[in-house]
Design goal:
The protein is 29% helix and 26% strand. By secondary structure, the protein is α/β, with parallel strands linked by helices.
Length: 236
């Protein structure tokens, strides 16, 4: 059985739709809450010891906060070792940003101070990209983006942050958006006290708008995730 470690950075993180989709494909998953002190599984040759792959989720901190959070320094090195070995890894939001830094890319706030929140369009980076064959709307919540790191291939672009998804080697992928988003998670994020400051920003859709967008765009995200996981798992 394929075993996948799910790395989280918040006590309230929910791997949601990603975990459900992996379980539906017969995978076994285990959460590793690295920000809470959990130990990351060590590398064993070109694989993680005890696991076949890793999914690294988002979090409230910046990928650049390595001086403030010791676990981020360790995690960046851990991800770098997997990328060097072409091990299977999927980075989501913060996870993708840590991947970019591990590869020598830059992570930074939007030059105009913009945030990217809610369902936003994602565009294929080329006309022959099987992972992103057409424009879809996906869920975002981040205030930093990344330069395309050395050796990576750009897969998708966005309107607020240009670089939205990349591949590295045959089995490593990073995406800025949140394919794990589910209705209960959306309500928790929208109701978070710290989130309220974002709704006064002109580029951020209101909570009601995001709720209305969810049933419209979620089926497309589910189809994307199913297609992605089927292709990714074939490469293990």
């Amino acid at each position: 059985m394929t075993r996948i470690v799910l790395v989280t950075h918040s006590e309230r993180a929910n791997p949601g739709r990603v975990r459900e989709a992996l379980h539906a494909r017969g995978c076994e998953t285990e959460v590793c809450h690295v920000a809470g002190g959990a130990d990351l599984p060590p590398m064993n040759g070109v694989r993680l010891r005890g696991y076949d792959a890793a999914v690294v989720f988002g979090g409230p901190m910046s990928a650049c906060d390595v001086d403030e959070h010791a676990f981020l320094r360790e995690e960046t090195a851990w991800i770098g070792a997997q990328l060097a070995a072409d091990a299977p890894i999927l980075g989501i939001c913060l996870g993708a940003q840590i991947m970019a830094r591990a590869l020598g890319g830059r992570v930074y706030p939007h030059p105009d101070g913009l945030c990217e929140v809610g369902y936003q369009p994602l565009y294929p980076a080329s006309t022959d990209c099987p992972l992103f064959p057409s424009t879809i709307h996906v869920y975002h919540w981040h205030r930093e983006g990344f330069d395309l790191p050395p050796g990576a291939n750009l897969l998708a672009r966005g309107g607020i942050f240009e670089n939205q998804a990349f591949g590295h080697g045959e089995r490593a992928f990073g995406v800025q958006f949140h394919p794990e988003m589910m209705p209960a998670t959306l309500e928790r994020w929208l109701g978070n006290e710290k989130a309220q400051k974002y709704f006064s920003r002109p580029e951020v859709p209101s909570a009601d708008r995001q709720r209305a967008d969810a049933p419209r765009y979620d089926p497309g995200v589910q189809r994307w995730l199913d297609r992605f996981l089927d292709r990714w798992l074939e490469r293990f």
